[in-house]
Automatic annotation (TrEMBL):
Signal peptide: none
Highest taxon, organism lineage: Bacteria
Domain Methyltransferase type: start-end pairs: 60-154
Record organism: Pseudomonas azerbaijanoccidentalis
Keyword Ribosomal protein listed: no
Keyword Transferase recorded: yes
Protein name: Class I SAM-dependent methyltransferase
InterPro entries: Methyltransf_12
GO molecular function: methyltransferase activity
GO process terms (BP): methylation
Amino acid sequence: MKSSTLNSAEKFDASRANEYARQSRIALAGYDACQDLVACMLAASLGSTVSAKVLVVGAGGTAQEIIAMARLEPNWHFTAVDPSESMVETARQQLALNNLLERTDIHLGYVEDLAAEASYDAATLIGVLHHLDGDDAKRQILRSIRARLKPGAPLIVAGNQYAYASQPLLLAAWGQRWRQHGASPDEVKAKLGKILQGADPPHSEAAVQKLLHDSGFGDATRFFSSLFWSAWMTCKL
């Protein structure tokens, strides 16, 4: 598992971390809306819980999910985990700008590095699964999260699905999205080539559901979709 996530972390070096906020908002139309809905879904699931401990896996970069949750729920606290030093530093800067460092424990590393007895009220795994090679690595991170959740706790999973080449219309629209934001034809071609080689997303929503079931989670409810990207909420069984 760690070798797979290490390879994924290497993708997010300093240059990519520095441009992540802009790039992610182009690649995912509705980026901020998705993060806002993550906060809303967890708040709705946890109900009248005054305070909650939320595990945020793959928190590097914008830390936008933490910012959105913290804005909605001022008594929630967060544990942020990410294996990329550059992405963690970028997230730390965003958390500092939003006065959230005191409410966030930041861990450079992996879910497995957290104490086995850690117990969280909820968790998020956003933009991570499609960067892990193979179903075994995907199940392993899901099981590691499950082991640190309270019974019945909600989990938000969000990321790309489909084998990209299997959806030529979506892929073409994704390229047009970049063109819409000023990319030249050569730049669009390069980005399309990169996405076709650079990730291993689950190949369908059914595949996502199976990964969750295999890892000890219940049926998932999809609440956001944008081209290849979807977001679901499930709960620990």
